[in-house]
Amino acid sequence: MGIKSHSVPTKVAEYIVLPLSIPPLPSFPKPTTHYLYLRPNAPKVLTADTPREVFLVNVPIDATELHIRSLFAEQLSGPRVERVDFEGARTSVRITAPVAPKGKKRKGDNLPGSDEGNLPETWDRDLRSSGGTAVVTFVDKVSAELAVKEAKRAAKSGREIVWGKGVGEKVAPLGSARYLTHHRLRYPPASSLQTAVDVFLTSFSAAEAAHAKLLSRQRQVPDEEGFITVTRGGRAGPARLEEATEYAAKQAEKEKEKREAAAGFYRFQTREKRKERAGELLRGFEEDRKKVEEMRKRRKFKPM
């Protein structure tokens, strides 16, 4: 937030700078200006919804979905908003059976967690982090383009955009009123807690059973090299530890036999080479002896 100034640019990089007028509050009885930055959403991974999304930066900390809907519907020519996704908002994730990874399992590869059985909220309204972001999804691409166009027009004309206009008492209060009413929300009903726990445990048990079934099926199907995965456990589930040890011993014995066979082959080659060398030496000796005998016969000795 800051004091409204006419020297503020209407655009920074790809973002449109939209000044929002914040009405006086009991805690700060002066009007102020908050600058909201927006542009067409451009994520690294595009989806089917990307053309009808607008990305917001520096969202006011008291922003709710109703605030965003009111901003576009009542002050920016009325494009219809389908939903608003704030940065850091809790989402519900269904627990699923994990897919067995290829290769060696690493420590910490456990079953995934689940937010499907989230505990009930104890606050009736969330606050946003300073400088937070949000993605606004409109009903169609035309509405998203109209929202960006009207925001640019409002920023250039200097038209006053009042934050929270039309919201009134439709959202839960903040400040001291929020804390005065919090004692009624601090302890959720036991039935709600029990339902959340039951949902989580049911989902976790289903995922655990699916994981065991996957391992059981996997140990019966050879891989590309013809090997069958050996894991720990009983026959109904994964293989026993004793079987894994026996399998490893057999593999070690096979490797030893291969090494001995290779060593025997090399010994045979060495022995044959020695025999061939000895034969060559013997033939050379016989040839030299014959030459000496012939020389002796040709030589004439004169008796003394």
Describe the structure.
By secondary structure, the protein is α+β, with helices and mostly antiparallel strands. It has three domains: 126 residues, Alpha-Beta Plaits, CATH 3.30.70; 82 residues, no CATH class; 57 residues. The protein contains five helices and six strands, in the order ββββαββαααα. Strands 1-2-3-4-6-5 form a six-stranded antiparallel beta sheet, covered by helices on one side. It starts with 10 loop residues before the first strand and ends in a 6-residue tail after the last helix. The N terminus is likely disordered.
Helix fraction, binned, reads 25-40%
The residue ranges in which pLDDT falls below 50 over 5 or more consecutive positions are 1-5, 91-116, 234-239
The strand count comes to 6
- Classify the secondary structure makeup into a structural class: alpha+beta
CATH class of the largest domain: Alpha Beta
The coarse silhouette is elongated
CATH topology of the largest domain: Alpha-Beta Plaits
**How many whole angstroms does the radius of gyration measure?**
42 Å
Number of domains: 3
Mean pLDDT rating: 77
Count of alpha and pi helical runs: 5
Main sheet record: 6 strands, antiparallel
Give the second-level CATH assignment, the architecture of the largest domain.
2-Layer Sandwich
The separation of the N and C termini measures 137 Å
Element string (H = helix, E = strand): EEEEHEEHHHH
What strand order characterises the main sheet? 1-2-3-4-6-5
* Percentage beta strand: 5-15%
